[in-house]
Amino acid sequence: MATLTVRPVETRKELVQFIRLPRMLYAGMPGYAPPLDMEQTDLLDPKHNGIFRHASVQYFMAWRNGEPVGRISAVVDAIAIESWDEKIGWFGALDALAEPEIVSMLLDAAYEWLKNQGMARMRGPVTLGYHGESGLMIEGQSEHAMVGTPWHPKYLHGFVERHGLVKAKDLLTYKLDLTAEVDERHIVPGSLKFGEGKLGDISVSPLSKKQITAQGEVLRGLYNDAWAGTYNFVPLQDYEMDAMIKQLKPILRPEHYVQIDQAGEPIAMALVVPNVFDIAGDLGGSPSPIGWVELGVRLLRHRFTSGRVILLGVSHKVRGTILGAMMPSLAIAELLRRRSTLPYQSVELGWILESNLPMRNLIERLVPEPNKIHRIYEKAITPNAA
């Protein structure tokens, strides 16, 4: 039997293999749609992802007969450690053939690297940080692929648990079909209208591409304020927001962004990102020249049919108040109102913590069950003997 080895990614060629590996491993599996290599490069290449400015990252690949058969990342995020005041390191980008030994050796490699970095606990999968791709897919493999949402085969979580990692949290995703029936179920009292009555000082700010950089900084401040102190949260940095805007600007429209202001001060937001799989899913991870032309045409014509709500939050200034409790409902209602100007048939509300009962209760009035579940695992790291 050929020897199985795991070694660090050291060359540019190996980095390219690392980025492309999932679509090689999972080709032909039911439900799998390869993401664009370009999108994954933005996530994993040190030249593109701002997390490398404040984090130490090491990639590993498993090899057999000169061919890669699995991969994993290990990350020490300085901002995360400062935010949590705990020495927790990430593992992520975990993908492998259906062999428990491969997964075990990859997890061992990440564990040993994190231990040598002085970490006390390993958490993941998170690629490469909180603002990337989170969780290992437990359910939803046959659902339509969604931007920014990792896909894993059904066997993988069993191998992870067999290795000794335990569940920390589940992240739930709900598919909201944009129909008139949803409007009927999502009831907002008729007296509650922006700029009128009890909401007289409440207004909605649209997205402006001319001012998107300034708006991005407002959004970043509101986002960090809204989610500060929640499980696994790491503050979004200005350079990370700049990179996000650069990536999203070509596909964003004013209707994608809801910013709710009180007396001119932002207190809640929601941002929908078009689902790139709608226009690229049939082109493969590395389209041909003709495929790129077709992709460009679809992009210009905005031929998306779905999207993902990536940011939904309420400022701590109104959290715990009646107004604060209404904000997520009003933000969703505003997105539903805009469906007539967008071609989307559905949106996914993702990364809802299983313990976030207020948000779950709101969403489950519209969608009773999640369509995807991703799991975060943890494992204590035993320090080296003195």
TrEMBL record:
InterPro entries: Acyl_CoA_acyltransferase, BcerS-like
Organism this protein belongs to: Kozakia baliensis
Protein name from the UniProt record: Uncharacterized protein
